[in-house]
Write a structure and sequence with these properties.
By secondary structure, this protein is of the alpha+beta class. The protein is built from three helices and three strands.
Length: 90
């Protein structure tokens, strides 16, 4: 189960190191709130890497889906569905 730590912007100013250490040790994200509104999240570097991988997978899938509806002569390679890994980018 994912427990989310909630901290205020003032908590960050007063104890950023302790909050960062807690996120690193527990691998639980911290949501920073200001005036009772969530502003940003602090996540572990491992979670950030997983998010980057998921984004890349989703981008590749979207590109392949798009390639299926684009007519010939559109500029996309004809072998995109077979060699999609060679055509992906960061």
């Amino acid at each position: 189960m994912l427990n989310i730590i909630t901290v205020t912007a003032r908590d960050i100013l007063r104890n950023y190191k302790g909050i960062f250490d807690t996120v690193k040790k527990t691998k639980q994200p911290a949501v920073v709130v200001s005036q009772k509104e969530p502003q940003v999240a602090i996540i572990s570097l491992d979670d950030l890497e997983r998010l980057k991988i998921l984004k890349n997978i989703q981008s590749t899938k979207a590109l392949l889906d798009l390639a299926g509806i684009i007519p010939k002569g559109s500029g996309l390679p004809a072998d995109l569905s077979e060699k999609h890994d060679e055509y992906t980018w960061d």
